[in-house]
């Protein structure tokens, strides 16, 4: 059976609040735990009214406190925004609170625009190639190997699993060189999926933490009893993408009948492209699409993304997804 997990952006819906979004995330994590999901990841984004996971480490603690066994972590922490020592301390604390359950997925994107990145004191003129060096510094703190001359407390000796995230070939190269698991953001950046997985697997160097490549790929699933209902629910995700690509990110809007058909052709084409790694429909059609994606990628684990306005409909979609992925 292919492992499956959830990526949650902790959406703030129109008319909703951050408090409600965080409460829904805890409820959804409990739901995923019962359904057999391997892990529950939240992602670092800043300056976006519709995403409540900016303080990612705090949200992870909230999710872990609400659950018992599911792994909880970041998908991901955007390392250029932080000093590696601070992340080692945060995730060392999380590991002390929830031992053996904490994942640290890391990427190098800012998770914001340049103006917001400046506001969080990111070093905008830093060398982007410093990312691998920062990852190795982070590993050194957890290993407590003395290479930095600093003991991370908490952090030293913590059992935190590291994952490299990417939406291009760069992350695949870093993950392969360092012998770490690799997760590709194909749920919104499908272009380089196949090439990135090939580079990761063909260049992988075994490490102390991983003997063979471990590849994860993200995939949108919006499932409902009928194709028409699933298509209707998916319009919230479509509206969010159009708003984001138009430079006007917003809270997640409610579904809108006929939204896709009302769009200009260029926006329809954009959605068809960026959401090409998706399954939207009734369970059998979703199963066919998921099977094709797993066969194509040979992924060791599927990271499910599920953007639905209504919380209960989102839980129902994940029930369908779990049933499909468990039987695969």
Tell me the Rg in angstroms: 19 Å
* Overall form: globular
Helix content: 40-55%
Q: What distance lies between the first and last C-alpha atoms, to the nearest angstrom?
A: 6 Å
Q: Which band does the percent of strand residues land in?
A: 15-25%
Structural class: alpha/beta
Helix and strand pattern: EHEHEHEHHEHEHEHHHEHEH
Work out the number of β strands: 9
Number of helices: 12
Mean pLDDT: 95
Low-confidence stretches: none
Question: In this structure, how is the largest beta sheet organized?
Answer: 8 strands, parallel, barrel
Strand order of the largest sheet: 1-2-3-4-5-6-7-9
Can you give keywords for this protein?
single chain, 8-stranded parallel β-barrel, alpha/beta, 12 helices, 328 residues
Which helices and strands appear, and what pairs or packs with what?
Elements: E1 3-8, H1 18-35, E2 39-42, H2 56-66, E3 71-78, H3 84-97, E4 102-107, H4 114-119, H5 131-143, E5 161-166, H6 169-178, E6 182-184, H7 193-203, E7 215-223, H8 227-245, H9 259-262, H10 265-274, E8 278-281, H11 283-297, E9 301-305, H12 311-327
Parallel strand pairs: 1-2, 1-9, 2-3, 3-4, 4-5, 5-6, 6-7, 7-8, 7-9
């Amino acid at each position: 059976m292919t492992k499956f997990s959830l990526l949650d952006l902790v959406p703030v819906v129109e008319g909703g609040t951050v408090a409600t979004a965080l409460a829904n995330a805890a409820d959804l994590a409990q739901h995923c735990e019962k359904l057999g999901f391997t892990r529950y990841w939240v992602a670092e984004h800043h300056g976006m009214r519709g995403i409540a996971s900016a303080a990612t480490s705090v949200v992870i603690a909230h999710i872990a406190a609400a659950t018992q066994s599911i792994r909880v972590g970041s998908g991901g922490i955007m390392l250029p925004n932080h000093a590696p020592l601070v992340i080692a301390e945060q995730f060392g604390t999380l590991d002390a609170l929830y031992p053996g359950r904490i994942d640290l997925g890391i990427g190098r994107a800012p998770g914001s625009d340049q103006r917001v990145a400046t506001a969080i004191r990111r070093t905008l003129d830093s060398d982007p190639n410093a990312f691998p060096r920062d990852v190795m510094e982070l590993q050194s703190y957890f290993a407590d190997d003395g290479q930095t001359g600093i003991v991370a407390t908490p952090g030293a000796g913590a059992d935190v699993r590291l994952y490299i995230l990417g939406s291009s070939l760069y992350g695949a190269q870093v993950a392969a060189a360092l012998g770490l698991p690799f997760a590709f953001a194909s749920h919104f950046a499908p272009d380089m999926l196949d090439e990135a997985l090939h580079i990761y697997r063909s260049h992988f160097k075994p490490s102390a933490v991983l003997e063979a490549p471990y590849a994860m790929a993200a995939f949108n699933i919006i499932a409902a009893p009928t194709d028409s209902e699933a298509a209707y629910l998916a319009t919230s995700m479509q509206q969010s993408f159009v708003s984001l690509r138009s430079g006007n990110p917003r809270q997640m809007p409610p579904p809108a009948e006929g939204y896709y058909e009302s769009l200009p052709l260029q926006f329809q084409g954009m959605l068809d492209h960026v959401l090409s790694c998706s399954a939207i429909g009734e369970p059998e059609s979703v199963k066919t699409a998921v099977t094709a994606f797993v066969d194509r990628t040979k992924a060791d684990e599927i990271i499910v993304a599920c953007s639905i306005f209504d919380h209960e409909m989102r839980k129902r979609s994940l029930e369908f997804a779990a049933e499909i992925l468990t039987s695969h």
